């Protein structure tokens, strides 16, 4: 099964994507993880990605779509995959569409997102970067919800509550 976990940062989508990937025995593909790894390498591209990540901005759509396309050529994706972080906007899905069977939206109130985000510590989590990423999510990524709703592949899951309970909710749709 090809699944996309969608939601703002702090919604718990990475945690839920990881649990679901373990359950379904398929890889979790996170463009954020791919870019964080890339940013630690040497060279011009790595430096540029590091800057973008640090500011909470998005890597350009063409580069991102190309990286995702390449990742899907690996043999571990044959039985499906869980995506976390791609697509981030309509243009990306037009450039390369992984063809999701289900899109799981983790709906979480904004106050809860902020509360969770200030209590986690990741190298690229400065206050400014968090704000930029949330803004980008609401302006660029949220329109994807309607896009997938129209394709009837969107399901909504309440992002509030216990991690395992949320995972059980998600499994009901699988
Ligand atoms: P994430 O772990 O999903 O929060 O992603 C961390 C950072 O990686 C983001 O703030 C972006 O700079 C970059 N990134 C991840 N996914 C994408 C994407 N689909 N398009 C562009 N940039 C991305």
Q: Proportion of β residues? A: 5-15%
Largest sheet: 5 strands, parallel
Q: So how many helices? A: 9
User: Gap between N and C termini, in Å?
Assistant: 8 Å
- Average predicted local confidence, pLDDT: 95
- Helix/strand/pairing category: alpha/beta
| Ligand kinds | adenosine monophosphate
Helix-strand string:
EHEHHHEHEHHHEH
Poorly predicted residue ranges: none
Radius of gyration: 15 Å
Please tally the β strands and state the result.
5
Query: What global shape is seen?
Result: globular
> What is the topology, as strand order, of the major beta sheet?
2-3-1-4-5
Helicity range: 40-55%
Query: What kind of oligomer do you see?
Result: single chain
How would you briefly describe this protein structure?
By secondary structure, the chain is of the alpha/beta class.
Description:
- There is one protein chain.
- The protein is of the alpha/beta class and 174 residues long.
- The chain is built from nine helices and five strands, in the order E-H-E-H-H-H-E-H-E-H-H-H-E-H.
- It has a five-stranded parallel beta sheet.
- Helix 1 (13-24) packs across helix 9 (163-171) and helix 2 packs across helix 3 (44-55).
- The protein starts with a strand and ends with a helix.
- 31% of the residues are buried.
- The chain binds adenosine monophosphate (AMP).
- Adenosine monophosphate binds at residues 9, 31-32, 35, 52-53, 56-59, 64, 85-88, 92, 133.
Strands, helices and their partners?
Elements: E1 2-6, H1 13-24, E2 28-30, H2 31-39, H3 44-55, H4 61-71, E3 81-84, H5 90-95, E4 102-107, H6 110-119, H7 127-141, H8 143-150, E5 154-158, H9 163-171
Parallel strand pairs: 1-3, 1-4, 2-3, 4-5
The structure holds adenosine monophosphate.
Adenosine monophosphate binds at residues 9, 31-32, 35, 52-53, 56-59, 64, 85-88, 92, 133.
